[in-house]
Structures are given as structure tokens and as C-alpha cells.
Write a structure and sequence with these properties.
The complex is a heterodimer. By secondary structure, chain A is an all-alpha fold. Helices cover 77% and strands 1% of the residues of chain A. Chain A has a domain at 25-230. Chain A has a two-stranded antiparallel ribbon. Chain A starts with a helix and ends in a 6-residue tail after the last helix. The model of chain A has no long low-confidence stretch (mean pLDDT 91). Chain B has helices spanning 55-63, 85-91, 108-113, 120-133, 149-161, 179-194, 206-212, 230-234, 237-244, and strands at residues 15-26, 29-40, 44-48, 70-75, 78-79, 93-95, 167-171, 198-202, 215-220, 223-228. The termini of chain B are far apart. Chain B contains 9 helices and 10 strands. The chains are: A mainly alpha, B alpha/beta. The A-B interface holds A 173, 176-177, 179-180, 182-184, 186-195, 248 and B 63, 65, 84-86, 89-90, 94-95, 97, 101-106, 110, 113-115, 117, 120, 159-160, 163.
Amino acid sequence: MIRRGAALAALAAVVAGLAAYPGFASGYGVRATLQIFMWIVLASSWNLISGLTGYVSFGHVAFFGAGAYTGAILVAKVGWPWLPAALAGGVAAVLLALVIGYPCLRLKGPYFAIALLGLNEVLRALVSYFEGLTGGGNGLSLPTLDATIPIYYAMGASAASVTLLTYVIITSRFGLRLMTIREDEVAAEAMGIDTARHKLYAFLLSAAGPGIVGALTARDQGYIEPISVFPLATTITMIVMVLLGGKGTVWGPVLGAVVLFVAQEVVWARYPYVHPLLFGAIIVAVVLLMPRGVLGLLQSRYRLPRTI
Amino acid sequence: MLTVNGIRDDLMATTVLEIERLTKRFGGVTAVDGVSLRLEAGRIYGLIGPNGSGKTTLFNCITGVERRDEGRVVFGGGRIDGFKPWEIAQKGIGRTFQLIRVFPELSALENLLVVTRDNLAAARERALELLRFVKLEELRDEYAGNLSYGQQKLLEFVRVLMREPTLILLDEPAAGVNRTLLNDLLDAVRHLRNQGRTVLLVEHDMKVVMGLCETVFVLDHGEKIAEGAPGVIQTDERVIEAYFGR
């Protein structure tokens, strides 16, 4: 058994290490870690809606893209500094979630998943269409700025916030109520739980993170185009990360994000063509052998608490 | 808090639920056909009838899971037809299901805590008391999905009680339950009646119905064909015909 004090101390050490990292790391190291933070935000956010309520979102990258374009337009065309633009990206994503969540959350299972997938494609098309604002297929360039290190910290703060949010939710009765939606929505309603409202809250919370990191990524890359910020591959990746780590847990998405990103970097560098094969193999392995992911497996084997 | 004794005078001799000419159709099939009934406080009622007679559909119409086509459902003086299931539950109607619906990946204790928004400490205390009542206290941290059929049945039963409902609908509480457990359950139901609550149960086990219920309603093909004390119902011609044919 890991004692709580020791666990917290270890966590503090990791956080301190990550905070000091840019001081002695290479450019590549900072960029790579920055991306890990981004994936942690994406995976953990997806977990909030799909892992907890069981409403599997197959178009979650739509919020990333919406945030990216909002942030990029505010920086490039309106002259905002990137940090407020990133927060605005989060707000835009939440508003988008509010507009589509209301009708879509009434759909069950596969219908919800496909509707979200459709949303992603619709957004991509809309962005291409409104060329004047978004640069359409030509993409949108941001004024040159080397802000890698501040963005590293912004991404890190986002990752920490989403992880903390997940912890707070999972250890609260609100989180339990969200889980009853996954367990048995009919019974949950019969017990007086307003499932529609709870689903919507979870959905809104799950959109904020991707919106913010979408805008941060736009700033970091300096250039975005529809295909780069609405790719289906991103949705699939965040799903695989959560499945691998353990959906419905706090640290599962984090574990999945770190492991998969590192594996991806290592494999892709040496064997670029094996990469898609690796992904497919992981999905199949996880679904067949450990559908509840690594942490889920540990939870049932060693009776670890749900709140890990 | 659950009181051990004590009949709640304010609830006695009042109409808790009134159903007027309730009708529900599914395509060409009329599952519930103009059913009217009234439930008084502090009594145990039975709802029986052959398979397919509309009992569960009637439950679903009361609890808002199905929308009725015609008729009214009045609870505690106010209409509840058209309300959502969670709103109706919050008004004070609780139900259990024919096929047990506990939350499998929540612990037994969490299954009880999640249904109430009361102060956590008070809720926890009440939940533990209820678990003790059905002898599940030691399994409070076990995943509900790992419990045996009988244990899950008891869990679902006390989960309904966490919200202190005025009216409790039990859908086949005796199904698949061994005799000892069944007696505990029936005692619990009588206990609820003594507290002034109202219980309506669907049941196929006639011994349970005859031994427990004060008034029995009989449905056949969606219609109410008889209503009365168990002894009277047993000898009613129409009831016998419904179950055994001419």
C-alpha cells in the first residue's frame, strides 16, 4: 500500500521537476514534454464525458479545432496576446459544446458517437467555407513569436488543472452521479437524478480543456489549417490513450498519454511505417485483454481505490 | 430519519395516488386500457395478472418512463403525467425493477449515497443503517456487481428507501429469492406500511400476494377486471378465467 503522504511527496517532486525542466532541457525535450501536456489535457477531458458517463464522443477534436481557430483569429486578426486568446478558445469550445450538447446528448450510444463525428466534419467544412475569417484551405498564419517556454508552462498548468478537476469530480457525489449514467441511466433517472443536466455539465467540462490547448497549439505552431486541427486521428489517439491507461480513473488518461506518446516518438522515429500498425494492435489488445486499461486492471486485481 | 415505530398520522386516510382511465398504446397493441385505481396512505396493494396484462407498463406510466396516451395520474394532489422520471422520483415515488438495476461498478454504499443530495455525513449514516437492516453492512465497499442475486435485490430495495419515498412500487420483489430472504423482505414491506408509506407491488407469487396485500388489483389485457381483498379476488370468476381460461 502506498501511503498518502509518500504519494503526495512524489507528486510534488514530479511537478517541481517539470517546472524546472526548461532550465536544463534541450529544445526537443521541451517541445516533446509540451506535447505530452497537451495529450494529457485531451485524454483527461475525453475521460470526463466518455469515461465517466459512458457517452462516447467520437468527435472530441472538434473542440480542439474550435479553440485553435478562435485563438488564432484573435491573435492574428484582432491582435490579442496569446494567453487571453487561449482562454477565449476554451470559452468558444464550451459554447460549442452547449449548442450541440443539448440536442446530441439525447441520442443513445452509437448515435451520439456518430453525431459527434459528424460535428467534427461539419466544423472543418465550415472553417474552409468562411475563408475571409479563417483563411479557408490556405490556413491561417500567426505573427512570428518564439514563446515555446511560456507555452510549455501554460500547457503544464492546463494539464495539472484538468487532472485536479478530474480528481475533484471522481471523489465527489457529482462524479458518482455521472457514473450512474454510465452504469444504468434508466435506474439513475428512477432514483431522481436529472441525467440530462448532468450529461451536459460533463460535456461542457470536457470541452474546455481541448479548447484551451487547441489555441495554445495554434500559437505554438504559428500556422493552422483545417486538416491540422480537425483530424480524426487526434480523436482516435486520445481515445486509445484513455483506454490504455484506464477510463473512468484520474491517472489512467495521464498514464496512457505519457506511455503512448513516448512509444509513438520512439517507434515513429525508427520505424515510421509500423506506426499505424502499432496503434491498431494496441487498440485490439486493450479491448480484448484489458478493456478497463492498466489502472482498471490494477484496481480489480489489487483492490486499489477508484480515486486513483 | 427512519422511525422504528410510529404511524404518521398526517399521511393516514389520504389518497396518495389516483389513476384515472389511464391508456397506453404501443402501435396496434393497447397495453393499458382505461385503468383507474386509487391508493390510500399506509396500505399495501398488489397488482396481479397474467403475463402481458400491462402491469409493468402501468408502473412505467406512473413513474414517467412511458408517456401515457390518455388519462391522468395524480400523486399527492398534483398531476404527474408528463413529468420526467427523475422529477417524479423527486416528488416521492420510488420503484424497483423486474430485472435488478443496481449500479454494478459502484460499491454497495455508493449505490445508496449517490441517490441523495443530503448532507454527506447524515446520508452515510442512514445508508449504513439501511445496509445493516438488510445485513449487507459488511459488503458496503464491495462492487455491487459482485454481489449475489439476492444481495443485489436487497440492495436495490434499500436504495429506494434512501429517498424516503411516500409511494413505493415494487416490481416482482419475490422473484428468484429464497424463503428466508423473502420473509425478511416481506417484514420490511410491512414495516414501511407501518410508517405510513404506501406500497404497490407487482407479483406472480400468489402466496406472497395473499399474505401481504390488503387490496389487490387484477389486470388482464390491459384492463382492470377486479379489485378487492385477496380472499375475494381468489374466487372471482373473471380472475380465474383470466389465468386459466374458460
